[in-house]
Amino acid sequence: xxxxxxxxxxxxxxxxxxxxxxxxxxxxxxxxxxxxxxxxxxxxxxxxxxxxxxxxxxxxxxxxxxxxxxxxxxxxxxxxxxxxxxxxxxxxxxxxxxxxxxxxxxxxxxxxxxxxxxxxxxxxxxxxxxxxxxxxxxxxxxxxxxxxxxxxxxxxxxxxxxxxxxxxxxxxxxxxxxxxxxxxxxxxxxxxxxxxxxxxxxxxxxxxxxxxxxxxxxxxxxxxxxxxxxxxxxxxxxxxxxxxxxxxxxxxxxxxxxxxxxxxxxxxxxxxxxxxxxxxxxxxxxxxxxxxxxxxxxxxxxxxxxxxxxxxxxxxxxxxxxxxxxxxxxxxxxxxxxxxxxxxxxxxxxxxxxxxxxxxxxxxxxxxxxxxxxxxxxxxxxxxxxxxxxxxx
Length: 393
Hints:
The strands form 3 sheets. Strands 9-8-7-6-5-4-3-14 form an 8-stranded antiparallel β-sheet. A 6-stranded antiparallel β-sheet has the order 10-1-2-11-12-13. It has a two-stranded parallel sheet with strand order 15-16. The chain has 2 domains: 2-267, Penicillin V Acylase, Chain A, CATH 3.60.60.10; 273-388, Alpha Horseshoe (Serine Threonine Protein Phosphatase 5, Tetratricopeptide repeat), CATH 1.25.40.10. The two termini are 41 Å apart. Helices cover 38% and strands 23% of the residues. It is of the alpha+beta class.
Protein backbone atom coordinates (compact mmCIF):
# COMPACT_ATOMS: atom_id res chain seq x y z
CA UNK A 1 0.00 0.00 0.00
CA UNK A 2 2.83 2.40 0.85
CA UNK A 3 4.32 1.76 -2.60
CA UNK A 4 1.13 2.74 -4.42
CA UNK A 5 0.66 5.88 -2.34
CA UNK A 6 4.24 6.93 -3.02
CA UNK A 7 3.76 6.19 -6.71
CA UNK A 8 0.62 8.34 -6.70
CA UNK A 9 2.39 11.24 -5.04
CA UNK A 10 5.16 11.07 -7.62
CA UNK A 11 2.73 10.88 -10.51
CA UNK A 12 0.51 13.75 -9.44
CA UNK A 13 3.20 16.28 -10.30
CA UNK A 14 3.21 15.13 -13.93
CA UNK A 15 -0.45 14.48 -14.62
CA UNK A 16 -1.50 13.75 -18.17
CA UNK A 17 -4.11 16.30 -19.07
CA UNK A 18 -7.79 15.60 -19.36
CA UNK A 19 -9.80 16.09 -22.52
CA UNK A 20 -12.42 18.15 -20.67
CA UNK A 21 -13.96 18.59 -17.25
CA UNK A 22 -16.07 21.07 -15.30
CA UNK A 23 -16.11 22.24 -11.68
CA UNK A 24 -18.39 24.74 -9.98
CA UNK A 25 -19.11 25.96 -6.47
CA UNK A 26 -22.16 27.68 -5.06
CA UNK A 27 -22.53 29.43 -1.69
CA UNK A 28 -25.66 30.50 0.16
CA UNK A 29 -26.42 31.07 3.85
CA UNK A 30 -22.88 30.28 5.03
CA UNK A 31 -22.91 26.95 3.22
CA UNK A 32 -20.88 25.91 0.16
CA UNK A 33 -21.28 22.95 -2.17
CA UNK A 34 -18.87 22.06 -4.96
CA UNK A 35 -19.56 19.85 -7.98
CA UNK A 36 -17.05 18.35 -10.42
CA UNK A 37 -17.30 16.13 -13.50
CA UNK A 38 -14.02 14.46 -14.49
CA UNK A 39 -13.77 13.21 -18.08
CA UNK A 40 -11.16 10.79 -19.39
CA UNK A 41 -10.63 7.62 -21.43
CA UNK A 42 -9.61 5.42 -18.49
CA UNK A 43 -12.50 3.81 -16.53
CA UNK A 44 -10.20 2.65 -13.73
CA UNK A 45 -10.86 5.59 -11.42
CA UNK A 46 -9.37 5.33 -7.93
CA UNK A 47 -9.79 6.90 -4.50
CA UNK A 48 -6.70 7.51 -2.30
CA UNK A 49 -6.96 8.20 1.46
CA UNK A 50 -3.98 9.72 3.29
CA UNK A 51 -4.49 10.25 7.07
CA UNK A 52 -3.20 13.26 8.97
CA UNK A 53 0.23 13.32 10.59
CA UNK A 54 1.73 15.72 13.12
CA UNK A 55 2.60 18.15 10.31
CA UNK A 56 0.07 17.39 7.57
CA UNK A 57 -3.69 17.41 7.20
CA UNK A 58 -5.54 14.25 6.22
CA UNK A 59 -6.79 14.19 2.65
CA UNK A 60 -8.52 12.19 -0.05
CA UNK A 61 -7.82 12.26 -3.79
CA UNK A 62 -9.87 11.10 -6.76
CA UNK A 63 -8.23 10.19 -10.05
CA UNK A 64 -6.56 7.47 -12.10
CA UNK A 65 -3.58 5.18 -11.68
CA UNK A 66 -2.10 6.47 -14.95
CA UNK A 67 -3.00 10.15 -14.54
CA UNK A 68 -3.10 10.53 -10.76
CA UNK A 69 -5.37 12.90 -8.88
CA UNK A 70 -7.74 15.27 -10.63
CA UNK A 71 -9.46 16.51 -7.46
CA UNK A 72 -9.03 16.24 -3.73
CA UNK A 73 -10.23 17.43 -0.33
CA UNK A 74 -8.49 17.72 3.02
CA UNK A 75 -9.91 17.40 6.51
CA UNK A 76 -9.98 21.19 6.90
CA UNK A 77 -12.56 21.63 4.12
CA UNK A 78 -10.20 22.78 1.34
CA UNK A 79 -10.56 21.23 -2.10
CA UNK A 80 -9.04 21.61 -5.54
CA UNK A 81 -9.72 20.51 -9.12
CA UNK A 82 -7.27 20.53 -12.01
CA UNK A 83 -8.11 21.39 -15.65
CA UNK A 84 -6.16 21.26 -18.91
CA UNK A 85 -5.89 24.53 -20.83
CA UNK A 86 -4.18 25.96 -23.87
CA UNK A 87 -0.58 26.98 -23.33
CA UNK A 88 -0.10 30.11 -21.20
CA UNK A 89 3.11 32.07 -20.76
CA UNK A 90 4.14 32.40 -17.12
CA UNK A 91 6.20 35.52 -16.42
CA UNK A 92 5.68 37.00 -12.95
CA UNK A 93 7.05 34.16 -10.82
CA UNK A 94 10.07 33.10 -12.90
CA UNK A 95 12.66 34.35 -10.43
CA UNK A 96 11.21 32.39 -7.51
CA UNK A 97 12.38 28.94 -6.31
CA UNK A 98 11.17 25.84 -8.13
CA UNK A 99 9.40 23.37 -5.86
CA UNK A 100 10.81 20.01 -6.92
CA UNK A 101 8.16 17.83 -5.32
CA UNK A 102 4.36 17.88 -5.63
CA UNK A 103 3.16 21.41 -4.95
CA UNK A 104 -0.55 20.52 -5.16
CA UNK A 105 -0.17 17.87 -2.49
CA UNK A 106 1.80 20.34 -0.38
CA UNK A 107 -1.17 22.71 -0.56
CA UNK A 108 -3.59 20.01 0.54
CA UNK A 109 -1.29 18.79 3.31
CA UNK A 110 -0.50 22.24 4.77
CA UNK A 111 -3.29 24.68 3.90
CA UNK A 112 -6.76 25.00 5.45
CA UNK A 113 -8.11 27.89 3.37
CA UNK A 114 -7.90 29.39 -0.10
CA UNK A 115 -6.03 32.36 1.38
CA UNK A 116 -3.35 30.09 2.83
CA UNK A 117 -3.06 28.15 -0.44
CA UNK A 118 -2.60 31.32 -2.50
CA UNK A 119 -0.05 32.58 0.00
CA UNK A 120 1.92 29.35 -0.35
CA UNK A 121 1.86 29.59 -4.16
CA UNK A 122 3.34 33.09 -3.95
CA UNK A 123 6.62 31.54 -2.77
CA UNK A 124 7.30 29.47 -5.88
CA UNK A 125 8.01 29.52 -9.59
CA UNK A 126 4.73 28.63 -11.30
CA UNK A 127 6.05 27.78 -14.76
CA UNK A 128 4.56 24.30 -14.43
CA UNK A 129 1.09 25.92 -14.58
CA UNK A 130 1.69 26.69 -18.27
CA UNK A 131 -0.90 24.19 -19.57
CA UNK A 132 -3.39 23.76 -16.73
CA UNK A 133 -5.29 25.72 -14.11
CA UNK A 134 -6.82 24.82 -10.75
CA UNK A 135 -9.84 25.87 -8.76
CA UNK A 136 -9.48 26.14 -4.98
CA UNK A 137 -12.50 26.29 -2.66
CA UNK A 138 -12.77 26.29 1.15
CA UNK A 139 -15.59 25.76 3.63
CA UNK A 140 -15.77 29.52 4.32
CA UNK A 141 -17.19 30.06 0.79
CA UNK A 142 -13.91 31.41 -0.60
CA UNK A 143 -12.99 30.34 -4.10
CA UNK A 144 -10.30 31.18 -6.66
CA UNK A 145 -9.14 29.99 -10.05
CA UNK A 146 -5.35 29.92 -10.36
CA UNK A 147 -4.48 30.58 -14.01
CA UNK A 148 -0.71 30.65 -13.88
CA UNK A 149 0.28 34.04 -12.46
CA UNK A 150 -3.32 35.25 -12.69
CA UNK A 151 -5.78 34.73 -9.84
CA UNK A 152 -9.55 34.98 -10.42
CA UNK A 153 -11.38 35.26 -7.09
CA UNK A 154 -15.07 34.54 -6.71
CA UNK A 155 -17.08 37.74 -6.58
CA UNK A 156 -20.66 36.44 -6.35
CA UNK A 157 -22.40 33.30 -5.12
CA UNK A 158 -20.76 30.97 -7.63
CA UNK A 159 -17.65 30.30 -9.66
CA UNK A 160 -17.20 27.89 -12.59
CA UNK A 161 -14.11 26.52 -14.33
CA UNK A 162 -13.69 24.31 -17.38
CA UNK A 163 -10.82 24.10 -19.88
CA UNK A 164 -10.53 27.62 -21.27
CA UNK A 165 -8.67 30.62 -19.84
CA UNK A 166 -11.00 33.27 -18.44
CA UNK A 167 -8.34 35.95 -18.92
CA UNK A 168 -8.62 35.52 -22.70
CA UNK A 169 -12.24 36.72 -22.85
CA UNK A 170 -13.91 40.03 -22.13
CA UNK A 171 -16.92 38.89 -20.12
CA UNK A 172 -18.91 35.85 -19.05
CA UNK A 173 -21.36 36.13 -21.93
CA UNK A 174 -18.50 35.49 -24.37
CA UNK A 175 -17.04 32.43 -22.64
CA UNK A 176 -16.74 29.72 -25.31
CA UNK A 177 -17.65 26.60 -23.31
CA UNK A 178 -21.22 25.37 -23.76
CA UNK A 179 -21.23 23.33 -20.56
CA UNK A 180 -20.00 26.42 -18.68
CA UNK A 181 -23.05 28.31 -19.91
CA UNK A 182 -25.38 25.45 -18.92
CA UNK A 183 -23.99 25.45 -15.38
CA UNK A 184 -24.14 29.22 -15.20
CA UNK A 185 -27.80 29.31 -16.21
CA UNK A 186 -28.71 26.65 -13.65
CA UNK A 187 -26.84 28.37 -10.81
CA UNK A 188 -28.28 31.84 -11.33
CA UNK A 189 -30.91 32.71 -8.70
CA UNK A 190 -31.33 29.09 -7.60
CA UNK A 191 -31.63 27.94 -4.02
CA UNK A 192 -28.65 25.89 -2.82
CA UNK A 193 -29.29 22.14 -2.53
CA UNK A 194 -27.63 18.82 -3.18
CA UNK A 195 -30.31 18.09 -5.76
CA UNK A 196 -29.44 21.23 -7.71
CA UNK A 197 -25.76 20.25 -7.74
CA UNK A 198 -26.63 16.75 -8.92
CA UNK A 199 -28.82 18.14 -11.70
CA UNK A 200 -26.02 20.41 -12.92
CA UNK A 201 -23.57 17.51 -12.95
CA UNK A 202 -26.07 15.45 -14.94
CA UNK A 203 -26.70 18.31 -17.38
CA UNK A 204 -22.97 18.92 -17.99
CA UNK A 205 -21.62 15.37 -18.09
CA UNK A 206 -19.90 14.09 -21.24
CA UNK A 207 -20.14 10.76 -23.06
CA UNK A 208 -18.64 9.54 -26.40
CA UNK A 209 -14.87 8.85 -26.54
CA UNK A 210 -13.82 10.59 -23.32
CA UNK A 211 -16.85 10.22 -21.05
CA UNK A 212 -17.35 11.56 -17.54
CA UNK A 213 -15.70 8.80 -15.53
CA UNK A 214 -16.70 10.08 -12.11
CA UNK A 215 -18.37 13.03 -10.41
CA UNK A 216 -18.27 14.45 -6.89
CA UNK A 217 -20.37 16.80 -4.81
CA UNK A 218 -18.39 18.18 -1.88
CA UNK A 219 -20.19 19.38 1.26
CA UNK A 220 -17.28 21.36 2.66
CA UNK A 221 -18.79 22.41 5.96
CA UNK A 222 -19.56 18.83 7.00
CA UNK A 223 -16.67 17.06 5.32
CA UNK A 224 -18.97 14.86 3.23
CA UNK A 225 -18.41 13.75 -0.37
CA UNK A 226 -21.17 12.39 -2.60
CA UNK A 227 -19.53 10.25 -5.28
CA UNK A 228 -20.94 9.08 -8.64
CA UNK A 229 -19.31 6.59 -11.00
CA UNK A 230 -19.40 6.78 -14.81
CA UNK A 231 -22.07 9.53 -15.05
CA UNK A 232 -24.65 7.39 -13.24
CA UNK A 233 -26.38 9.96 -11.06
CA UNK A 234 -28.93 7.52 -9.62
CA UNK A 235 -26.42 5.63 -7.45
CA UNK A 236 -24.56 7.64 -4.84
CA UNK A 237 -21.74 6.69 -2.47
CA UNK A 238 -21.51 8.94 0.59
CA UNK A 239 -18.02 9.38 2.07
CA UNK A 240 -17.53 10.91 5.51
CA UNK A 241 -13.91 12.02 5.19
CA UNK A 242 -13.18 12.04 8.92
CA UNK A 243 -14.45 8.47 9.33
CA UNK A 244 -12.73 7.22 6.18
CA UNK A 245 -9.35 8.58 7.28
CA UNK A 246 -9.60 6.61 10.53
CA UNK A 247 -9.14 3.46 8.44
CA UNK A 248 -5.56 4.50 7.65
CA UNK A 249 -3.84 4.78 4.28
CA UNK A 250 -5.78 2.91 1.63
CA UNK A 251 -6.75 2.93 -2.02
CA UNK A 252 -10.10 1.87 -3.43
CA UNK A 253 -11.08 1.16 -7.01
CA UNK A 254 -14.06 3.44 -7.48
CA UNK A 255 -16.20 0.97 -9.44
CA UNK A 256 -16.00 -1.48 -6.50
CA UNK A 257 -18.03 0.96 -4.39
CA UNK A 258 -21.03 0.85 -6.73
CA UNK A 259 -23.60 -1.66 -8.02
CA UNK A 260 -22.79 -3.25 -11.37
CA UNK A 261 -23.54 -0.94 -14.29
CA UNK A 262 -23.93 -2.11 -17.90
CA UNK A 263 -22.80 1.19 -19.43
CA UNK A 264 -19.59 1.15 -17.37
CA UNK A 265 -18.80 -2.51 -18.01
CA UNK A 266 -19.58 -2.17 -21.73
CA UNK A 267 -17.26 0.83 -21.99
CA UNK A 268 -14.47 -1.12 -20.26
CA UNK A 269 -14.81 -3.84 -22.92
CA UNK A 270 -15.29 -1.62 -25.96
CA UNK A 271 -12.77 1.11 -25.33
CA UNK A 272 -9.65 0.80 -27.50
CA UNK A 273 -6.64 -0.74 -25.79
CA UNK A 274 -3.50 1.41 -25.55
CA UNK A 275 -1.36 0.77 -28.62
CA UNK A 276 1.64 0.46 -26.31
CA UNK A 277 0.38 -2.90 -25.01
CA UNK A 278 0.56 -4.40 -28.51
CA UNK A 279 3.92 -2.78 -29.29
CA UNK A 280 5.41 -4.01 -26.01
CA UNK A 281 4.15 -7.53 -26.72
CA UNK A 282 5.75 -7.50 -30.17
CA UNK A 283 9.05 -6.09 -28.86
CA UNK A 284 9.30 -8.87 -26.30
CA UNK A 285 8.21 -11.63 -28.69
CA UNK A 286 9.68 -10.62 -32.06
CA UNK A 287 12.04 -7.71 -31.48
CA UNK A 288 12.05 -3.95 -31.94
CA UNK A 289 12.33 -3.98 -35.76
CA UNK A 290 9.13 -5.99 -36.08
CA UNK A 291 7.44 -3.70 -33.55
CA UNK A 292 8.30 -0.65 -35.65
CA UNK A 293 6.81 -2.24 -38.76
CA UNK A 294 3.60 -3.19 -36.96
CA UNK A 295 3.25 0.23 -35.33
CA UNK A 296 3.56 1.93 -38.70
CA UNK A 297 0.84 -0.34 -40.09
CA UNK A 298 -1.44 0.46 -37.15
CA UNK A 299 -0.72 4.18 -37.51
CA UNK A 300 -1.61 4.05 -41.22
CA UNK A 301 -5.00 2.63 -40.25
CA UNK A 302 -5.69 5.20 -37.56
CA UNK A 303 -7.92 7.30 -39.82
CA UNK A 304 -10.17 4.26 -39.91
CA UNK A 305 -11.00 2.24 -36.81
CA UNK A 306 -7.75 0.49 -35.92
CA UNK A 307 -8.84 -0.92 -32.55
CA UNK A 308 -6.18 0.88 -30.52
CA UNK A 309 -5.92 4.06 -28.48
CA UNK A 310 -3.15 5.97 -30.26
CA UNK A 311 -2.78 8.73 -27.64
CA UNK A 312 0.74 10.10 -27.32
CA UNK A 313 1.04 9.25 -23.65
CA UNK A 314 0.96 5.47 -24.27
CA UNK A 315 4.20 5.15 -26.26
CA UNK A 316 5.79 7.76 -24.00
CA UNK A 317 5.01 5.60 -20.98
CA UNK A 318 6.34 2.49 -22.74
CA UNK A 319 9.57 4.28 -23.64
CA UNK A 320 10.18 5.27 -20.02
CA UNK A 321 9.40 1.73 -18.90
CA UNK A 322 12.07 0.43 -21.27
CA UNK A 323 14.53 3.00 -19.94
CA UNK A 324 13.88 1.82 -16.39
CA UNK A 325 14.61 -1.73 -17.55
CA UNK A 326 17.97 -0.65 -19.00
CA UNK A 327 16.80 -1.12 -22.60
CA UNK A 328 17.78 2.32 -23.84
CA UNK A 329 18.20 1.41 -27.53
CA UNK A 330 14.64 0.09 -27.68
CA UNK A 331 13.44 3.11 -25.70
CA UNK A 332 15.03 5.51 -28.20
CA UNK A 333 13.26 3.72 -31.05
CA UNK A 334 9.91 3.90 -29.27
CA UNK A 335 10.38 7.60 -28.52
CA UNK A 336 11.31 8.21 -32.17
CA UNK A 337 8.09 6.51 -33.28
CA UNK A 338 6.12 8.72 -30.93
CA UNK A 339 7.86 11.84 -32.22
CA UNK A 340 7.15 10.86 -35.82
CA UNK A 341 3.46 10.63 -34.95
CA UNK A 342 3.36 13.73 -32.72
CA UNK A 343 6.03 15.90 -34.31
CA UNK A 344 4.81 19.10 -32.65
CA UNK A 345 4.85 17.67 -29.14
CA UNK A 346 7.29 19.23 -26.67
CA UNK A 347 6.89 16.16 -24.48
CA UNK A 348 7.88 13.77 -27.30
CA UNK A 349 11.05 15.83 -27.94
CA UNK A 350 11.83 15.92 -24.22
CA UNK A 351 11.46 12.16 -23.73
CA UNK A 352 13.71 11.36 -26.68
CA UNK A 353 16.26 13.87 -25.40
CA UNK A 354 16.22 12.17 -21.97
CA UNK A 355 16.92 8.81 -23.61
CA UNK A 356 19.80 10.27 -25.62
CA UNK A 357 21.21 11.88 -22.47
CA UNK A 358 21.07 8.54 -20.65
CA UNK A 359 22.99 6.95 -23.53
CA UNK A 360 25.61 9.69 -23.40
CA UNK A 361 24.67 11.14 -26.78
CA UNK A 362 25.07 14.74 -25.65
CA UNK A 363 24.72 16.34 -29.08
CA UNK A 364 21.33 14.77 -29.86
CA UNK A 365 20.16 15.28 -26.28
CA UNK A 366 20.88 19.02 -26.47
CA UNK A 367 19.25 19.27 -29.89
CA UNK A 368 16.01 17.65 -28.75
CA UNK A 369 15.83 19.50 -25.43
CA UNK A 370 16.15 22.77 -27.37
CA UNK A 371 13.38 21.67 -29.74
CA UNK A 372 11.19 20.90 -26.72
CA UNK A 373 11.81 24.34 -25.22
CA UNK A 374 11.07 26.02 -28.55
CA UNK A 375 7.64 24.36 -28.51
CA UNK A 376 7.16 24.94 -24.78
CA UNK A 377 9.23 27.86 -23.42
CA UNK A 378 8.02 27.00 -19.89
CA UNK A 379 9.58 23.52 -19.88
CA UNK A 380 11.56 23.71 -16.64
CA UNK A 381 12.71 20.11 -16.77
CA UNK A 382 14.29 20.53 -20.23
CA UNK A 383 16.02 23.73 -19.13
CA UNK A 384 17.44 22.02 -16.04
CA UNK A 385 18.79 19.18 -18.19
CA UNK A 386 20.38 21.64 -20.60
CA UNK A 387 22.15 23.25 -17.65
CA UNK A 388 23.46 19.80 -16.67
CA UNK A 389 24.67 19.32 -20.22
CA UNK A 390 26.37 22.72 -20.24
CA UNK A 391 24.19 24.02 -23.06
CA UNK A 392 22.75 26.95 -21.05
CA UNK A 393 23.72 28.71 -17.83
